[in-house]
Specification:
- The structure is a single chain.
- By secondary structure, this protein is of the alpha/beta class.
- It has a single domain, classed as Alpha-Beta Barrel (TIM Barrel), CATH 3.20.20.70.
- It is built from 8 helices and 11 strands.
- It has helices at about 25-35, 50-60, 85-95, 110-120, 140-150, 165-180, 200-205, 230-240; strands spanning about 5, 5-10, 15-20, 40-45, 65-70, 100-105, 125-130, 155-160, 190-195, 210-215, 225-230.
- Strands 9-8-7-6-5-4-3-10-11 form a 9-stranded parallel sheet.
- α3 (about 85-95) packs parallel to α4 (about 110-120).
- The two termini are about 20 Å apart.
Length: about 240
Amino acid sequence: MVALGSLPLGGGIPRIAVVLTDSFAPSSVLEAHRHGVALAEMRVDLFRRRDAASIAATLSSLGTLPRIGTVRLRAEGGAWTGSEDERLELFQTILPHVDAVDIELQAHETLARLRPLVTARGATLIVSHHAYAATPSLAELQRLVAEAESAGADIVKIATMIPTGAPEALRALNDLTRLLVLHPRSNLIVIGMGPAGLISRVAFPRLGSLVTFASYGPEGSTAPGQMPWETMVGLFRVLSPEVT
């Protein structure tokens, strides 16, 4: 079973992550943790201050809450506009303070350089593919997962837009998620973005998707279709009372 630090993932237990910049109130996030939030994704590309001391202080304020560090390019739906050398340096700054890092599959060179650094720290490597326009076919989704695993991913994250009136897109992601049940060696996070993909954020964790993402307070949503963490926890208390 794959883990983020001391937090095991899988085994039919839905895990909710809140997505944070550096403007959160630590006491409020830790309160969310006590009420069912399992981990935090730190969107460092959205941080106002990215010097090493500020990053260390921000991340350490979360105590033992498991953390994913992400530096997403503007072209990948994020805010990072620096060079790839600078992004790699930022990942190196983050690594001592997180349990996992998330990098896009298409960042081939940076991914190859980052992978041994993550391994050396004993952290978890999440390799992502985000598609904001539409959802690829099931065959293409399977190819992307295989490519990410070949690139060294411990966890593969697939997040694609579900257009309104396109149930075949949701079916493709559903079929991909079921592969985790059929092939338990694959560690997947699968998310359908947009209003038509909302159901995936609740249903797919019950099918085997390892993590679902929620928005936090004034930080707001960082991806189309993210629900507030309070709403997400409430839904899982109804649908999965044995694990919340």
